Amino acid sequence: MTQLKPQLVLNKMVDDFVKAGEGLFTSPPPTSVSREKGTYVYLYAKLSKRLSSTLAVDREVLILFTSFEEQQQRTIKTASDLIAASSGRLENSLVIIIHADAEGNAKLKRWGRKRRALRPSGLRRLVPKQARRGRASPRPRAFQS
Questions:
Q1: CA-closest candidate to residue 81, choices 48, 36, 119
Q2: From CA 36, how far away is CA 20, in angstroms rounded?
Q3: Cα separation of 94 and 117, whole Å?
Q4: What is the pLDDT of residues 52-84, one digit of tens each?
Q5: Which residues of 98-121 are buried (b: 16+ CB within 10 A; e: fewer)?
Q6: Structural domain contains residue 125
Q7: Interior CA angle at 47 toward 43 and 48, to 5°?
Q8: Structurally, how many domains does the chain consist of?
Q9: Which domain holds residue 119?
Q10: Would you place residue 119 in the very low, low, confident or very high pLDDT band (cuts 50, 70, 90)?
């Protein structure tokens, strides 16, 4: 079986993601960058008003695409470097990483916590005040059985 070049795989990933996310964000054309022996593609996404409010973000969000079959810590470093180089344009508490690693989500979450590069975004705003104070809050109607 012929393996596609990483840039072609990344371009397809971007196209699929942009089509699936239509109406959720806008962005300029994707940009490619080579770092740490790998190629990445990224977008600066301006989230819709509703999604920005839900995620409690005010700035654009970095969406980073990787074609690695197995995620490595350099993905977090690359995301951190791109956010730092944006001079405040990008939200520093949230990044979206699109990848093909079946266990990548758990790895990225663990590595992000270790590096403290990416903090949880708006958690306090999403948790009802009663729950933050240790009191039980009623279940939302949509979840009642």
A1: 36
A2: 29
A3: 9
A4: 999 899 999 999 998 888 888 888 888 889 999
A5: bbebeebeebbeebbeeeebbeeb
A6: yes
A7: 145
A8: 1
A9: 6-130
A10: very low
